[in-house]
Amino acid sequence: MYIKTIKLNNFRNYTNQKIDLQKGINLFVGDNAQGKTNILEAVFLCAIGKSFRAKKEKELIKIGEENSKIEIEFEKSDRDGKIKIEIDDKKNVFVNNIKQNKLSDILGNINIVMFSPDDIEILKSGPAKRRRFLNILISQLRPKYVYCLNMYLKTLEQRNNYLRQIKLENKPKEMLEIWDEKLAEYANYVYEYRNEFIEKIKSKISKIHNDITDNKEEIKIKYITDCIDKEKYLQSLKDSWEQDIQKGYTGKGIHRDDIYIFINGKQVNIYGSQGQNRTVILSLKLSELEIVYEEIGEYPILLLDDFMSELDGKRRENLLKGISNTQILITCTDEFTISEKMCKTYFIKNGKCE
């Protein structure tokens, strides 16, 4: 799988730009705030349907313009394809020039794995970041997961609204059973998908982490959830009625799921060094890379946003040596050489790629 061309029109700080990529390593070099990350953001947007950093889609439109367009032509082992996204008052998505009814229809066309310095927040921040990591991985490979997760979140919002109505308007509690049943149904689907992929991560990450650390660290992953068993979850929802009514929100469910990661028996985000946390993130992402390959038979496109600056020359070489047959897009502030690897370098300045 690889991207052949990227076309940007009024996207971020790009007016009209076409970038032809090669199958191997594509290195984007430039000072900060010149537009390097915007290129990776365009790829991420066409793969996932959402930006990894913009809160509002209008932020993606170049200042002073009314609309934006991104087009990506790609090739997979079994087909060529094109993703086009148009953004104005709303977002329109096209796959091979056919307008899609749902944003989720874009998923699975372009598979990506992304590294960035902010990935450390997957460990250091709250569980929402860890759930998001899982959601991005699973949604690319199991499109139905997105539907089940969205339906769960919609039902959760409806249940929370009704909890407040019980408290403020004396609505009957018994009606909660309707929301509980639907919530448990979707929670069970989401749990099964998440558990499946956490098991896949476990099957890959131990060897990967051992190789990175020369067998000096043992990594373990534990999935924390309220929803292992549908009937038990239903009962726990009912047992929590009074507490949920008082708080006005649902305290148990897959929206509270978390992943604990241990190094040599200690939780890494609490007791691990900065270096250990970065190594764990590297192991997680390389596991993701292998899982995608195992699922679809081709390696995903690898996006490295200013990640190489976190590594010394030797570790940089070791990382790239361990990744073969993969198209890689790298952003950095300084050009560097990569031995034994085909590398095409682009220079980025003021929203222009040369």
Portion of residues in beta strands equals 15-25%
Low-confidence stretches: none
Helix content: 40-55%
Strand order of the largest sheet: 2-1-4-5-6-7
Class per helix and strand makeup: alpha/beta
| Number of helices in the DSSP assignment | 10
Instruction: Give the biggest sheet.
Output: 6 strands, antiparallel
N- to C-terminal distance: 24 Å
Q: In sequence order, what are the helices and strands, one letter per element?
A: EEEHEEEEEHHHHEHHEEHHEHEEE
Can you describe this structure?
With about 350 residues, this protein is α/β, with parallel strands linked by helices. The protein contains ten helices and 15 strands. It has helices spanning about 35-50, 120-125, 125-140, 145-170, 175-215, 230-240, 240-245, 270, 275-295, 315-320, and strands spanning about 1-10, 15-20, 25-30, 70-75, 80-85, 90-95, 100, 110-115, 220-225, 260-265, 265, 300-305, 330, 345-350, 350-354. The strands form three sheets. The protein has a six-stranded antiparallel beta sheet with strand order 2-1-4-5-6-7, covered by helices on one side. Strands 8-12-13-3-14-15 form a six-stranded mixed beta sheet, with helices on both faces. The chain has a three-stranded antiparallel beta sheet with strand order 9-10-11. Helix 3 (about 125-140) packs across helix 4 (about 145-170). The radius of gyration is 22 Å and the shape is globular.
